[in-house]
Amino acid sequence: MAAEYYRLSKDKVAELFERARADYDVVAKTRDANGNLVYGRPVSFDDVAFVDEQPPMSAKAFALPQTETLVRYEQEGDKIRADGSEAPARDVLLFGVNMCDAAAFDIVDRVFKWDYLDDPYLGRRARATQFALACAAVQRDCFCDRISYGEDGVDAVAYELEGAYLVKVRTEKGRALVERYENLFAVEDGDAERSIKTFKEKAGTVKKEPMLESAKPALEKAFEHADWEILASTCIGCGICTYVCPTCHCFDIQDEGGSSRGRRLRTWDHCTGRTFTATAAEQPRDRQYKRYRQRLLHKFWYYPERFGPLLCTGCGRCITYCPVKINIKELVEYFGGLKDTPPGGARHGK
Amino acid sequence: MPRSAATSSECGRRGTVAEKEKRSARETAGPWEPNIVGFLCNWCSYAGADLAGTSRIPYACNVRVIRVPCSSRVDPLMILRAFREGADGVLVSGCHPGDCHYIDGNYYARRKLIALKRLLDHVGLDPRRFRVSWVSASEGRKWAEVVKTVTRELLEAGPFRYEENGDD
Amino acid sequence: MGNNSERLYVPRLARVTAVVEETPTIKTFRLAFEDGPRPDFKCGQFGEFGIFGVGEATFCFASPPDREYVEITVKNVGKVTRAFHNLNEGDVITFRGPYGNSFPYDDFKGKKLLFIGGGIGQAPLRGLLWNCLENRADFEQVDLIYAAREECELVYERELVEFEARDDISVTLALDPVCPGEPIPGWRGRTSFVPPILEEERPSAEGRVVVTCGPPIMIKLVAKSLLEKLDYAPGQVWTTLEMKMKCGLGKCGRCNIGSVYVCKDGPVFNYEQILSFPREF
Amino acid sequence: MATIKEELQAAAKKLFDDDRVDYFVGYAEDYGHTFPAILAKDSDLSRLTFDRKSYNNLANFLPELRGFRVGLICKQCEVRTLNVLAAEGQIERDKLVVVGVPCPAMVDPRKLPQGEADLAALDESYWQEKCRRCPERNTPFADVFVGERVSTPTPAEGWPLLEEVEAMSAEERLAWWREQMSLCIRCYACRLACPLCYCHQCFVEDNKPQWLDKSVGPENNLHYHIIRAIHLAGRCIECQECSRVCPAGIPVDVLNNVLSRDFGERFGYVAGETAETEPALIQYERDDKEDFIL
What we know:
The structure holds 4 protein chains of 4 kinds. Chain B is α/β, with parallel strands linked by helices. Chain B has one domain: Lumazine/riboflavin synthase (Rossmann fold), CATH 3.40.50.960. Chain B is built from 6 helices and 4 strands. In chain B, helix 3 crosses helix 6. Chain B is globular and about 40 Å long. Chain C is α/β, with parallel strands linked by helices. In chain D, helix 5 crosses helix 7 and helix 7 crosses helix 9. Classes of the chains: A alpha+beta, B alpha/beta, C alpha/beta, D alpha/beta. Chains in contact: A-B, A-C, A-D, B-D, C-D. The interface between A and C is large, with 52 and 47 residues.
């Protein structure tokens, strides 16, 4: 559908939030017990942080929760009844989500729709509407200006201008949101795309060459590059980079409970972990650098080769929260032939 | 879980320890009874409990006994797993310091259990839920007393609610 | 597509109707599906078999596709497999599948087939082997080399004796040498690893397809000897790759080698494909 | 601090030129961050640095380099860690070159003001809590000393956050810990950033028996953290890396401080004091004090 443009004055945002809570299960940024910014379900607008700051945890959990029951089973006589989890009861509105989180859903949908339809994930995605808030400035370690995704998969996005937000509606769900609260929005008459362009230039989020997609051909020949070992051996193998990442979707399936009552659940897992691919026969990724290499190549070579887009939206969380500050962008540039000096100077041979 | 060491008549008709599913069903008849897992060292406390039985000393039969070679064989992992599997209280009982069949097993156990006790107290777990006792092979009466006190205190403390975790 | 595709992860239930103890660590389970028709699978495919309260694990179908029952062979190595080994007849297990691709049966027609099985690796070959023997006319020649660590580790021993009695299949049994050169007392077969047997027998690559399955180290050395010493083309050597799997249907991101998902694009591959993968092994 | 970089780079170059080490583990500066780096002979040593964001405990990278000759930059935290690792037989002392560096007190990244800040000038309020309790800023022993000795301000007493939590009632503490544990995502960074968590198979990876459920939730998370603290009883040297790396900002080292304080008061025990200090749980006194055993 053709994009439509509206104006939402800043003082109407609170009212939009309060009214949306009647029709949607509204998710917005708020503060948790330790003062971290998180996507939560604040009850009133005073607790909502309608800001472009990036929460440590992405919005991934609203489509793929960290722990989710797939099957509940119960012994009845000699029969066992097993039933799946219920689809969400209400529509969900992601209110003021970052662009890098909103676009990630569209990228990850492809693997969850590949041949087999993952009903728990897609059930939630079908009922989710994303109302994104564009970043007015580049944050700590972001590099979304080097990744070619734009506003894909975003239903509506608000750009903060003087005194009002310019709201660009891109999908049916986005229009449904605007139509439902028509009186809060005014039709935008000015040249919307130009003001978006100036907004991005001021924010510094205009795409800059070379894009990281161009690293793929060199990455395909860098699997056995000698410097993987020395550059990725500082990786400690924790799960931070994959759990905070909006596009990492790997999970584990486990059972909990007795033989007559319990549940089969799915929970996040991380390829950097020691036992991710360990089998009784062998462990193909026996060294930590091989596990880190898997994560980088899956995002910048394997996934794009299979599904099209990079499995990365450049949000930079995996750099910001990495205990040893390994920088995935620098490593992609080094192994992808876009840079000839390794990050931190570590190198095996000349 | 092996047959409970307590063989007092009062407990006879309840039979052997139920499989963990029946216990998690929790709809045993009558008022709520605390479910206590007891790790008893084979040489002293297990023998003491046996003595209580053969001496026909009546006492509550809420303790499901697990026989271990020595109190230092009890790993904090087992204790926390017992709470996860539905125990309301855990009791570790071994030889008095100095009596250990393995000379200093219970001395090591003491430090380890002190560390666990300090942590469980710190995070706010009801102190009545994790108990340690020294019961020698001749102290059948003391064993019955220990079980009575632990059971009585747990009746006051109430069931240990292990919250179902992380559902969406 | 898998079973009830709208509830991807809700498993079907199957009942164990027979348990055969193959070796002290390996058992074969025969399964009956009471909630509907038996899953329709092809040789080489696998399923996610599980026990409620314990977990799921990946096993290939160890019985030919046309039998009315389904069989799987399980080695006791982990949490789920140990729980399988505690199963008795009448117990209920969970099943999802069939998943993965299968051996290209039609391409094998008219060729000489050389099966090379190692220990529990004989399970994925068994379905195909019986399938070929029951349509023996389709194949010019069928040979089997089956190796195991020691005599008590021989899987499907009764069938091996049956194969040895047939005249339309040649069978070579081999045990790992305990100390090189010394035969094992009372053992009727060879005492050697598989590669030396191949280099001695020198089966010609002409019109032959090799299907091998076993411990990863055996697959690698067998392929190495076939490709480098017996000038087989990589496309003639077929195997099923064993990567850790959890979902079995291309979602959980665990079984991939490069951009290939072993559970979706495999587990059956030929060595031409394997050599094109990134060097993960 | 400018000279310390050049001294470090010179020390590293000398170790490689004299062929005394295969790898040199230090801190590098790039893309706006200071981070641990493993350097080889042909690496570009000009990135080597040492500033107030060099808080990683570099002893954590020794297991991955087992068998190689390693030069290791050590501040006071690393030295006390090496003492514990040596007492537990984990160190190949002849293959290790300890490069001692005086520590300027590290800043807490969570308190860092946004944007560029002159780290050297930041006062005590920005420091990591452990640095206020640091008994000695200069490394007691080293094979190569770099930088001049610094004065050590009188160390602060006690554990402020631990005392704050202990002041609550039992119910409040349980509620507080349950709320903190509801933020835990079980990424295990606290376990993997800890140089003393080096088991090949950790209890969290066991599934025969399955000690810990894989599902994430306050109860399971609390069980994991309690066992982690038990396994560090009398070993933890309070480098506070576990709390620094936690993406949810949970002060997990409070659980370790409970036992550090208790073992200090009860057994007069300080972890990592010397290379001969045995871990606390493999020794005992006949009259170890306890107040709860029936």
